Amino acid sequence: MAAVQAAETAALGWRGGFGRLLSAAVVSKFGDALRTAAMPLLAASLTSDPMLVALVTACGYLPWLLFGLLGGAVADRVDQRRAMWAVDGVRGLLMAAFAVAVALGHASIALLLVVAFALTTLQTLFDNAATALLPSLVPSAALGRANARLMTGQQIASAFLAAPLVPVLLLGGPSVPYAADAATYVLAAVLIASLRTPPAERAPRPAGSTLRGDIAAGLKALWADRALRGLCAATTLCNIGMGALIAVLVLHVTGWLDSGQAGFAAVLTAYGAGSVVGGLVAGRLAQRVGRLRSVFVAGTVQVGSLVVLGTVRELWAAVAAMAVFGLMGLVWNANQTTLMQERSPAAMLGRISAAFRTTAVAGAPLGALLGGLVAAGWGLNTPALLAAALFALAVAALAPLIN
Question: What's the rounded Cα separation, in Å, for the pair 91 and 93?
Answer without folding.
Answer: 5
